[in-house]
Amino acid sequence: MTGNRGYLISTIFNLDNGIMRFFSRVIDLVILNLLFIICCIPIVTIGASLTAMYSITLKMVRNEESHIIREFLKSFKQNFRQGTILGAIAIIIGFFITIDLRIIAMGYDNLKIVEILCYAAAFWSYIIFLYAFPISARFIYTTKEVFKNSFMISSVNFQWTLLLILLNVPFVAMLFYSGVSMLLLFTILLICGFSGLALIQSFIFRKIFGKYEIPR
């Protein structure tokens, strides 16, 4: 009986055990999420932080990651210039689209076509940047090539693109459902929400990226 109990305990706490691997992965995601948030604080570094986070999660789905903190900081440094440029462009586009929609919302009915164009631009901009940071993290491209390939890959794999968009629906629903759900959402995001979503997305990106150039 004692031998069986000892075997059970040793099995549970064995690092190769499925349960221990799961908790180890959760801890990695919490650490990665914290690194991502900290590196986003200057605002202008959001793009570089996103790229670094995807570089880790894309390795996670292949079981290629080793030291989370060291690899994140290394990727953050390597992709700082391109990631920052991508992030800055995303912020600028988002800013101008928001301003245009606010002006239209003031009651300018003759700008209905402009409103439709703004929503179309917002939709495609979101899709392009949804791919841009993972592509920048996984492939060696110029910034121009990142945008070009983001558009082409997202269009060719549109069924997967829709799935990637749908993954955000629960977060949006929690944001607007109630004050309690909003608080819960912020709590999840602070703990492991960003890294967790990136990891789920990375399983899809792995399937998509496997069709194209050899990753770095």
From TrEMBL:
<keyword id="KW-0472">Membrane</keyword>
<feature type="transmembrane region" description="Helical">
    <location>
        <begin position="30"/>
        <end position="54"/>
    </location>
</feature>
<dbReference type="Pfam" id="PF04854">
    <property type="entry name" value="DUF624"/>
</dbReference>
<keyword id="KW-1133">Transmembrane helix</keyword>
<feature type="transmembrane region" description="Helical">
    <location>
        <begin position="84"/>
        <end position="104"/>
    </location>
</feature>
<dbReference type="InterPro" id="IPR006938">
    <property type="entry name" value="DUF624"/>
</dbReference>
<feature type="transmembrane region" description="Helical">
    <location>
        <begin position="158"/>
        <end position="177"/>
    </location>
</feature>
<feature type="transmembrane region" description="Helical">
    <location>
        <begin position="183"/>
        <end position="205"/>
    </location>
</feature>
<feature type="transmembrane region" description="Helical">
    <location>
        <begin position="116"/>
        <end position="137"/>
    </location>
</feature>
<protein>
    <submittedName>
        <fullName>DUF624 domain-containing protein</fullName>
    </submittedName>
</protein>
<keyword id="KW-0812">Transmembrane</keyword>
